[in-house]
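thought: fold this chain, then report.
action: predict
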Amino acid sequence: MPETRRVPPAALAAFTADAIRTLGAPGDMARVTAEALVAADLRGIFSHGVAGGTGLHELIERARAGAVDPAARPGLHHHEGWAAAAMDGRGGMGPVAAMEAARLAGDLAEKYGAGRVHVYNANHFGAACVYAEALIARGLAARATCTAGSWLVPYGGERIRLGTNPIAWGFPCGEEAIVLDMATTQRAVSPAIRYARAGEPLPADYMMDERGEPLEGVVTYEKLIKGSVRALGGARYGYKGSGLAMLVDLDGVIGGGSTRRVPTMRETPHCRVAQTFEAWRIDLLFPEQDARKRLAEAVADIRTYGGPEMLMPGEREARHKADAEKNGIPYELSQWETLRRLGADTGVKPPEPVG
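observation:
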């Protein structure tokens, strides 16, 4: 196991917010963005955390390139009496628009039974489960999706067109939140980039090269970024993930998202994605007490069919969060080095490890 040191979540959030403020972000927006990044780290989703590939470094890089406006607040388009709304992200920080949209989706659900909010002209929002869990904490069922920079050749296609397009979907079940957070590809792209840069072998049935041949073993970063990730289902059943990615794209279009291919950071820092948030009351059709009881019973029944290794969706992340809140977030030495570089770059002192 790699050597780790623990970082206090509150100190990490304070450092991240201070670093974001150096970009010109108002304090409240810097705090929301910092909390979203730390929330991913708390759950062990380090690819979307503070030191991850889509974390603070990318935000700083894109903001300085003029591709993200740290001071932009989303604008709302809402028809009174409707349970749906759209927001213009205005090219601002992704988590700011996302958390505002999730909150509004929850408000609409509480008023109308179900609520739906689209965000267009937006940026990457981090880990999708963070927003679904915020709604579940209000006693609502929830779903969050987002388009992404293109890394995927559609199943049976010839050129890269689709993103990893994550989906988070969950329910309040007794004392726990059951939340699935998944890419529509075999895996997210950031782990492959980390493998390539570290000289570690890629798993099989994960990436393809420009000719559609498998990328396996140790692959250089230069070769990797010319390739594509496989759709969920792999070489044989990738039509499943490819279809899901297409539907996330089309759903974003309804809410004002782009009708064209979204570029990645390999090509330009100037790109926009679409986010969608849905919430619905679990007492929409039956009394809340009955709905909660039946959900808890269903989870209990599912558990009886599994052994000690079986986990419900989101259970691994919940365990990681409980440990990290108590003992600190476990950062590998490479992540601490990233914090050190970010601190030197922004002039903000990084947090000290606690163990």
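thought: worth noting. Residues 120 and 257 are 5 Å apart (CA to CA).
final: tokens above.
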